[in-house]
Amino acid sequence: MIVREARCACGALSARAKGDPVRLSICHCLDCKRRSGSAFSWNATYDADRVSTDGVYRSFTRGSDDGYWARSQFCPSCGVTVAYEIERRPNMISIPAAGDRGL
Fold it and tell me: What predicted TM-score, i.e. pTM, was given to this entire model?
């Protein structure tokens, strides 16, 4: 089985995902634009039990206009988000896939 790995910029935090993602998406919501510094973000989503993280992370939870939450896991040293989950997609974890450190 393929294991894919994403790392933050300083290498202190990583996320590993087993197998193929159940969803690949390109998002252009304001939060993804802020996180990526681009007009969109490319994301790979996996069943939560197929994703593990290694290293210390901090979490930030925000609410949406329609009352749902989204929680990001990011490196406290460099600030790079390595994984996030949203309430509307229970038991799923998304990993930013673009760039040289993503999946």
Answer: 0.86
